[in-house]
Amino acid sequence: MAKKTKKDNGKPKVAVKPRQPEQSPQAAKPAREAPDLGALRKPVLDANAGLTKAETEAKALVEKGLALITQAKGAYREAVAAYREACRKAGVDCEFPGGRSTNVSPKVSFIVEKADKGIRVMVKGKPESEELIPLAALKASIGKAAYAFTDKQLGPRERVGNKGGGLANRLRAVMAGKT
Question: pTM of the entire structure?
Answer without folding.
Answer: 0.45
